[in-house]
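Hi support team,

I've been running sequence recovery on a batch of backbones for a student project. Most finish fine, but this one hangs at about 90% for roughly twenty minutes before it completes. I'm not sure whether the input is malformed or the queue is just slow. I've pasted the structure tokens below so you can try to reproduce it. Let me know if you need the job ID as well.

Thanks,
M.K.
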């Protein structure tokens, strides 16, 4: 689902928000663009480092990243929500 950019009252353009999976329980007011989550969290694209052995994901700066075996490591560019949907859990150290 794609929400197109639209003008808000202060004249700024809101960024287009891409919702691959609408989350149950997240209410979106399409008139204002407000939701129960911070809008900047929605569809935010970042770089994460995945450990596909432990099914954890890390910030690239996490100190645990260097201990991930190359064969278990994947670099991922996308949204955190998608990682959660894929069954990955956030690292306890870097709290991505
Ligand atoms: Zn980490």
């Amino acid at each position: 689902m794609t929400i197109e950019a639209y003008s808000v009252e202060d004249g700024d353009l809101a960024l287009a928000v891409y919702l691959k999976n609408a989350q149950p329980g997240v209410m979106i007011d399409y008139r204002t663009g407000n939701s129960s989550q911070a809008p900047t969290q929605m569809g935010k694209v970042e770089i994460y480092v995945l450990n596909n052995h432990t099914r954890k994901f890390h910030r690239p700066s996490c100190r645990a990243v260097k201990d991930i075996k190359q064969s278990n490591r994947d670099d991922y560019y996308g949204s955190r929500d998608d990682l959660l949907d894929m069954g990955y859990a956030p690292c306890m150290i870097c709290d991505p």
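--
Follow-up from support: It reproduced on our side and the slowdown came from queue contention, not your input. Residues 45-90 form one domain. No action needed from you.
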